[in-house]
Amino acid sequence: MTSPTPETIRDAILKALDDGQAEGIATIPVQKQTPMADYIIIASGNSGRQLSALANRIGQALKEIGAPILRIEGAQQGDWVLVDARDVIVHLFRPEVRDFYRLENVWTAETKKKTESKE
Q: What is the C-alpha separation between 20 and 53, in angstroms, rounded?
């Protein structure tokens, strides 16, 4: 069995998040900025329980396609859950925590800066 592509992993995660009624799902391609991952996905859930359920859905979806899950962190705390699926990193937040950290702004600002420096 061949390993799933980063795009296949991304799509499985996005479906799991949609099925779990995650809100504000954002996908940021980062393969040109960092060797860490090809995509970062950020989404919100209304409670720690929902974030934990979303992480479990992601884990199940990745298992079904034969993708590795390197780590799930923060599921017990419930404010910010990180799922490391090697080529795709997922950040799940409660809305107020997401507003505080604003990870989308960090990565999109970095993308804009790198694009401008090439011009």
A: 8
Q: State the number of CA atoms in the 13 A half-sphere of 119 facing the CB.
A: 6
What are the chain's domains?
A: 6-118 (3.30.460.10)
Output the six-digit token pair for 32. Answer: 């040109």
Q: pTM of the predicted model, to two decimals? A: 0.88
- Would you give per-residue pLDDT tens digits along the chain (119 residues)? 588 999 999 999 999 999 999 999 999 999 988 889 999 999 999 999 999 999 999 999 999 999 988 899 998 888 999 999 999 999 999 999 999 999 998 877 554 444 444 44
